[in-house]
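Sequence and structure are no longer studied apart. To make this concrete, we show below a single chain and its fold as tokens.
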Amino acid sequence: MTFQESTEFDALWESMWKCKRGKMWKASVARFVTHGIEETLKLEDEIRAETYLPRKPHTFRLTYPKPRPCSSTHIRDRIVQRSLNDTVVYPGMTRSFVWDNMACQKGKGTTKAMDRLEHQMRRYFINSGGSREGWVLQCDVQGYYRNMSHAEARRCFERRLDRETVDHAMAWLQRQYPYDVGFEPGSQMVQILGISMLDPLDHFIKERLRARYYGRYMDDFYLISRDRAFLERCREEIDRELGKLGLHLHPKKTRIFPLPDGIKVLGFTFRLTPTGKVIRIIDPKNVKHERKKLARMARLVREGKMTRAKFDECYGSWKAHANLGNSHKLLRRMDAYVRDLMKEDNMKIIRNSQPIGERHRIENTLAEASSTAAVTSIAFVVLAESGQIDEVTATEHSEVFAEWVPGVEHKVGQIRRRGEDLYKCLQAHTSQEGWEPESTPALWKKIGDPTDEWPEWSQPIGAVDAYMAGDKVTYEGKHWISDVDNNVWAPGVYGWTLQA
């Protein structure tokens, strides 16, 4: 695909749907997607007229696992860059990659990189006649992104891409990072640069130095050999090659050590046992950090500032990461630790799992309720919000739902009453003045009147509220029926049949 094709409406539209995933809680993303057709057409016109100018990215500083700068690009720039990356830059740059370049590619990633290192350690053991004696050269490029030359970045692109793509890509990057040296990770195009810049070094190590056991994840890489002198020579040659790119090895993080000491990669230490088995041990600092984090989150749950569901989601994410290693006993200890943190009676857990405003409403209702009817009302609301009661039935009992008020945290699926109407929350947010449900279709969806067979059509924001086949609507005074599922188009444009 060419640059022109990658910046046409269809490509930009597809890119928008990719970029919005998991980001609809941001106001800028919700606004763009709500007016997606107009905004995408505007982007296409600006690129064709060569008036498109990327906005300055928002910069911030990450503190874990190590302090480092990072940046976030605006949704419109992310859409343009992703469209160009997915259709032109990524296919062109990655076709020359060695297999052991593992970062930011389809079918690869951290899990694949860890599996590859384990495979190489086992192969080394077998090919060494059942011996684990050997040496490891572990390398890290000093200040990789902040020392990356823009001139070298351009040459990197020019090796694999056409002139038009390179000119536009570098012009956009130069506007976002207006200096001669240095980028900040966060942009997808900068990530592509990160995995591509050292591609010649990969070939040099594999083809010129003839390193058999080698792997790289972004700017961290390792070599395994029985000969320490060979690795010493490799370190000198690698540093010389990096110098041609204006980069150098980190003097402290680059070292040669015995293989039995274990290789620390991606938060795990890989140890080769005398029998040839590879053991993955998670970094103890990671476990210590997680325990402190869980203690803080448990306190927030007790104070009603975090839901139990969010707590479980965060802990489950860490468990999935820890489970990549040999962590069975560790996970059992962590589960026991979490149980100790969360020891509470069941009703308190249920109350704390709700947003603050909802928690107070439930507590007051339970304190005042002495009849079965009051408890039944609470159960009805919970079932309706979980989807176990249909929307038509819910609208017939609108009086049991809480009134919408500003200053309350809402999560996806919750139902609130506004006057005589019910609205379902589409995005987690905190309500405020000016964000009333009837005024914010990106945040709330009105649950239609069960007596209204042809409700007024409203622009869906995505799959969460798209029309399904057979849905009936009124649009510009006429009746329409949807012909397809996940229909986000306006009647008369696509996917609708006009009724006589």
Observations:
- The mean pLDDT is 85.
